Amino acid sequence: MKSCEWHQRSVRTLGLLHSVLLLVLLQSEALAAKKLRGSRAQPRRTLPSPQYRERAEATESFPLDFTAVEGNMDNFMAQVKNLAQSLYPCSAQKLDYDMKLHFLENTSVTCNDGTPAGYYMKESKGSRRWLIFLEGGWYCFDKDTCESRYDTMRRLMSSTKWPQTKTGTGILSAQPEENPHWWNANMVFIPYCSSDVWSGASAKTDKSDYAFMGALIIQEVVKELLLKGLQNAKVLLLAGSSAGGTGVLLNVDRVAEQLEELGHTGIQVRGLSDSGWFLDNKQYRCTDCVDTISCAPTEAIKRGIKYWGGVVPERCRLAHEGEEWNCFFGYKVYPTLQSPVFVVQWLFDEAQLTVDNIHLTGQPVQEGQWRYIQNLGNELRSTLKDVPAMFAPACLSHEVITRNYWMDIQVKGTSLPRALQCWDRSLHDNSKNNKAPPKGCPVHLIDSCPWPHCNPTCPTIRDQYTGQEMNVIQFLLHMGFDVQKMAQQQGMEPSKLLGMLSSGS
């Protein structure tokens, strides 16, 4: 085909496109900076010496900063794509963004049912940034709950029906318009098939019905990736959502120690825990521990850690010797961690409310339930106050970093991707010269408003029966929110409170 003869031309064109894109971004940032400075005369900067430039070029470059065009990103990216297609027609063809399935070469490390564990991977040639994502999906903690899980959610216990490819979304997306700061990283997605919150280290035997090898699966994936480019990495971000988010807290230090023991001391290991910061609080209504949903989290983990042969971080184990189940709860394990971790947590997490026996079935909640929900937000705020890098919107939801709306959520005017980029930069700067985080680049973001969905950028909520979207006021009234009473408590007129809610104040 003629297009095959143009391969070298395509490479040159993509290089040209990269240069054009970089120039456009630099120009945009220069214009934005000029507007901020006004008409004041600025001293001219002298060019760095060639020796300094060589040193600067040798350091790792950060992903392109889209801040200057954040307000009109869709239009900007459309223009870039049109430019690419006009420069080289073959670029109009669909690029391969999919991650490919790889089963572990060590077949002794398996899913619950003994089928081989594995991972999905998309390489990014030339990038020294790696993102490993741990999937979530609850757990089972004894023979009965595991058999029920195998009957109803077999995909989370077996690899027999895993597809050959997987398309990344949110922070796993390879498209800059959906993932502005991590799109060019090497992406790895590890499916959750161990049902043990990524903590198990026990194989299936004649006496045990299932294998629980979550912690070993992570170790084995890292070992294989070292033969596929990870050995040259500058940064490894271990991320996960829900049970995967808790798995990050349980495994990030172990991954760092594994790489160090294998001689890869130059790789900076970091964690990103999404919706995995659970509380061991008292349930709203206590019930018997008969299934995963109704069982109190503390009781489920106490049973599970024995059934799984679960392992926890060594420093946390020593701090809670004999009661290692404590290490599954974020506010208890976090202080013992040595690797930097960014925590993302909805203040009104749906999974937390579910295990606390608050079921939002479409009926207005009772006053006692409403108070419980508000107290949950206050408790989470309290446990997060000393976490330096975190993003906690006052929303009723669960999981976010792989959702297609993850760029839309803001806390105090800062989006989650922006906060993660600021955290990235602060860690890079600190490793170089121990400077404070850049000004105007916050990494500790938590909503102060007291009600679910009082943040106007929260994900859309739909009525469970009609499917219609609800605004903030409709949602709060639906939940049984007493406007008169709450306005009285705040010392204001009801009409003023409604106006504040409508505007997202």
TrEMBL record:
Residues 1-32 form the signal peptide. InterPro entries: PAE/NOTUM. Keywords: Signal. GO terms for molecular function: palmitoleyl hydrolase activity. Residues 37-56 are annotated as: Disordered. It holds the Pfam family PAE. Belongs to the pectinacetylesterase family. Notum subfamily. This is Palmitoleoyl-protein carboxylesterase NOTUM. It comes from Albula goreensis.
